Amino acid sequence: MRRYLATARLVTLDSLTVFWGEWLDLxxxxxxVIAAGLVSPLIYILAFGLGLGSALDRSDIPFAAGETxxxxxxxxxxALSSMTISFGSTTFSICGERLxxxxxxxxxxxxxxxxxxxxxxxxxxxxxxxxxxxxxxxxAIIATQKITFLHPLFLLxxxxxxAIFAGIGVIAGxxxxxxxxxxxxxxxxxxxxxxxGGTFFDPNVLPFVLKIVVYCLPLTYVTTSLRxxxxxxxxxxxxxxxxxxxxxxxxxxxxxxxxxSHQQD
Length: 265
Known about the structure:
Blueprint: H1 2-26, H2 30-58, H3 69-100, H4 104-108, H5 114-144, H6 152-175, H7 179-196, H8 208-214, H9 218-231, H10 241-262
């Protein structure tokens, strides 16, 4: 038991060391990271929340959560922005080190556990995602006047979302052969998930076959959970989402550690 605890402590400390190296580079670009993640969500809020939403609000269509369509999509916007930045920034960071600056070999030579390398890179992606989410979070609180956006369950799901997509970003960054490949991954993974992950609609109203497809996406669990944490009582919170997201994160950590242990470049 002591050996496992010692190993866990060592992995944790090494992960923080790897993250600190990422943070030294990230802290100089905090405004850039935040601004980059604000553009798309703000466009979606204006186009869908205020544009389409004004028409839907007049039609008296009931929403699964929230009183207006803008309120309905705001939790999804936070999930969407954190997903995009956590994935994109992590992938491009590792690609830059591997393919251009050629400094990734130095990372692989660090005397740390492969899991620590994965977790350190992932934590950096989580921080990037949370930075962007914080901006959208402020907008959401001002627009809805609901402090429940700071509910502990909301923040837990948000961190899990950032961790999952940062983890996917790490694995993608380790495997892509060019920057163009990152664009393909974004087009075939992130963009479809942005629109099919329950951000703009209630997944529960879909036909059974489509519902199965939508619930295969981790963003769906994140969006529905964030929405429930803000607008619905705890008795209606989808508690099954938490273990599902945790399992996805653990699986990604295992894949990432294995990838780092066999990485050659």
